Structure formats: C-alpha cells, structure tokens
User: Fold this.
Amino acid sequence: MRPKDQAEAARINAALTSFHNTKRPLPGIQDAARRAVFLEQLFESIHRVRYITRGVLERELDVRRANPASDLFDPIKGAAIRAKQGQHDEACWLVFLSVHFGRHRWHGWQYARDVYGALGNGSRWDWVRIRTEPEAFRRWLAANQGTLGQKGSGRIFGSHRKYQSIDAMKPNGTGSAFVSYVNWVHPPRTHAGLMENAVDQVGNDPRELFGLLYQNMDSVASFGRTAKFDYLTMLGKLGLAPITPGSPYLGGATGPLRGAKLLLLGGTTATGASTSQLDDWVVKLGAAIGVGMQELEDSLCNWQKTPDVLERFRG
Assistant:
C-alpha cells in the first residue's frame, strides 16, 4: 500500500471493525490476509476513481487525445477536452464509445478509435453525424464489418465487453447499440435536455437521477448492468451529469455480487440473503466507512477473483 494511504487505510480498517461488531458481521474479511487484500483492492478502486479528477480534469491535456487520427486518441480524455470546449454532446458520445468498446489491456482504444474515425477515411462518426444518420452508420458498419473484425488488427473489445459483437444488424451488435443510443437521447433533444427531463421527473437528487437514467438505459441495445453502471458513473466523474450511484446495483451483477456474498455472508455462492438485502448492506457499509458506491462495487468485483492474494487488475 502507498505510504500516503496508510492513515486513511487505518481509519477504514477501524470503521470495518466497528461495522462488524455493531451493525453487520463481515465474515469474509476476518482472516487477516483476506482483510489486507480487501483493503488493497479498495484503495486500488479509490485511486481509479480519483484519477479522473486528478489525472484528467485537473491536467492540461494534449488536444490529440480527442483526435482519432492520432495514436494518442483516448475517448475519456477526449471527452474532457470536448467538455472544456463546450461540446457537451460530443463529450457524452465519446464516453459512450469508451464504454461500448472498452479499453483492451494490450491494444488500448484501437477499436473505438477506428470506428469513431471511420477507419481513417477523412470523416468521423461524431455526434453531429451519428445523431442525423444513425442508419447510415449501420450501413457503413455492415460494409466495413469484415475489416473491423479482422484478426490481428488490434481491434479487440475490452474485458467488460468481451462478448460484444461488431455486427451491424444483430439485435445486440454494435449497429443496434449505436442506433438505440441515439434513439435514447432522442435528437433534436440534447444530452443536457435528457438530463433536464430526468430532473423534471425525480428532482435534483444525484442518486435518484442516476437511478432513473440507469433504468431508462434498458432501451440501449447490448448495454446491460455493467455497461450502464460504467457509462453513468463516468458521466458523473467527468462532470457531464450531476449524478452518482446510490447503491452498487448488484441486481444482474456477477463479480460484484459474488464479492458482496463473500464479504457479508462468507462465501461467493452463499445463500441466506436476497440481492436487494446485500445491496442495502453494502450501502450501509459504504456510509459507515466513508467510501462511495463506485469504489465499493469495483473493489468487491476485483477482490472476489483472488481474495487471498493481491492481483492488480488493469483491464
């Protein structure tokens, strides 16, 4: 653990002990080794969330990060750049691309770059174009599907999207995902207008807004529980929407749910509590130890993979 984290880790460790003794047992981390690994994974997750603020929003970014013609292209940093330029819709679209394709451990953002940059033909599938021509994009994708899916090209979906298809026509393929996302925003309504409509429905509470958008994103093809959670949390972190998750959203989860069962019930396949009960307990735990839901969701997912040995996950 980083030296600068030790004081905060001691505070969280004490809060975990207090929670265990007074509110809800935490059988999964009573073993010293597992507790240490859990804390390490928790701080790994905390640093990943803080990176968006300290490593992206607070830094002067190279404008090539937003340019798919550059090897430096990064849709997350590109979104921050476009937001600072007042291009809110483009920033949100880049976040969608980052989640849809994911970042591959070895090949980075190659897939998102090549699709956004239309395979380097001098045009882009930016928001201005996609919002007016979603079906034209599907036709373009169908024509270039073989090239985009070619083995050895470096175009590989990230780990959270490894079962995603580049297919233009299948119900859960990339073509349907793009078209349904445009329909979800519903141009000429903007992303800001989408948020204003959500505020009209549930008010200004960031958690309620997150919940409504999470529910409404069911209409976006191929965006299941993880993709919706990742997309909306990134909008919040980048300051593109005033939203934050009010729970870890364990319903439909795999890794985070297994982690919650291990922590709270003592085993990844343990029974004796519903998913909603586990969700509620994680919320209470987060409040007790002063850690946000995104950090807890991420750390539970990674910790349950190797609970006795620290393994740092990088995508």
Residues 32-57 form the longest helix (26 residues). The chain has two domains: 3-54+248-303, 64-237. The CA atoms of residues 236 and 243 lie 5 Å apart.
